[in-house]
Write a structure and sequence with these properties.
Layout lengths: L8 E6 H12 L7 E5 L1 H5 L3 H10 L4 E4 L2 H9 L6 E3 L8 H7 L2 E4 L2 H10 L6 E6 L14 H10 L3 E7 L12 H20 L4 E5 L1 H6 L7 E4 L10 H11 L9 E6 L2 E5 L4 E2 L5 E2 L4 E6 L16 E4 L2 E6 L7 E4 L11 E8 L2 E3 L1 H8 L3 H6 L6 E6 L2 E8 L3
Parallel strand pairs: 1-20, 2-3, 2-9, 3-4, 4-5, 5-6, 6-7, 7-8, 8-9
Antiparallel strand pairs: 1-10, 10-18, 11-14, 12-13, 14-17, 15-16, 15-18, 16-17, 18-19, 20-21
Amino acid sequence: MDPRRSLLSWIEIDADALAHNLRTLRDLLTPGTRFQWVVKANAYGHGLETVVPLAWENDVDWLGVHALSEAERARRAGWTRPLYLLGPTARTRLARIRELGLETVVFDLDTLAALDEVGDPKRPIGVHLKLETGTHRQGILAEDLPAFTRFLERARGVRLAGLAMHFANIEDTTDHGFARKQLARFEELSDPIRRHFADTLRHTACTAAVLTMPETCFDMVRVGIGSYGYWPSRETLVACRARLGHPITLAPALTWKARIGQLRSVPSGSYVGYGCSDRVGRPTRVAVLPIGYSDGYDRGLSRLGHVLVHGRRAPILGRICMNILMADVTDVAEVGDQSEVVLLGAQGDESVHAGDLAEQMQTIPYEVLARLSPTLPRLLTRQGEIVASNGSAGG
């Protein structure tokens, strides 16, 4: 039986769209450049366990996660290739990095020393130094680098595997002057280190860098938002087209669906929802959906957002609740109890893009996707047919 028949709300992940995006981005790279697929934040809301098998299918070289818990989930899902930890780890759990066979970012000397203590000299932990070039988030200052390299020269439990940085202003502008300054600084800091440590990977490029500045790609790239079918920004789209001279297409892979839980006929002049925040000016048919801000549908979309019913836009009425929202389906024909509704994605000729919701929320598509509840079932599809069901993606 199709698992969708027993669900009130679920997320469908299009395997073909993901494959297209991964292939499109990889085709921009020089042969031999390693491809790291960033699957932090539950694979940008798509479900970490759902996408790991697709990483195998699409010849992904590395996976990148933020937290140790995500690394554990990736290993349980069967990922045995290199796995990179982008975020910090509690000192009491550093031994788990060795047990899971991870490589990890390092930006403070105390953590490096602690990793060396728990590392195995026969299989030392690969560490990647995050160099400070202008973002001032994670990062090692130039004056502190000599202490790191001196330590690594005598370390036994760790080995220098990579040198990394992150761009501060490459997505939100078509002027990449600051990014070029960061890149020059990275090369200035990394070149002397690489002369003393062989086989050290350099990686700086996110999706926007891959699309707009090929000189940033070095030995490996770390691709996130573009792999899921979203441009980092309009500016990235413009800069990419100017660079390539032709458009490329990224295909959003995620569709969020729900079923109408109840249909109500509301008389003209009646209020809908908390706070009497909306009042209908005509006899109105209201669809009650079992979705709210606890599921990741932001309360800020109250009276602003739309859902799709039978390929028509239906505006949200009143305030979005914790587990419920209401939509006006008066102008949608043949709506019934249990009718399928799209909250994010396409239906017929209409679509609701994460960028549309982000503009209404005054944020970015990354946040819209990352906040989708991990308890919503993720269903993997090919040409509309379910090929795998992940139930709940886990917390």
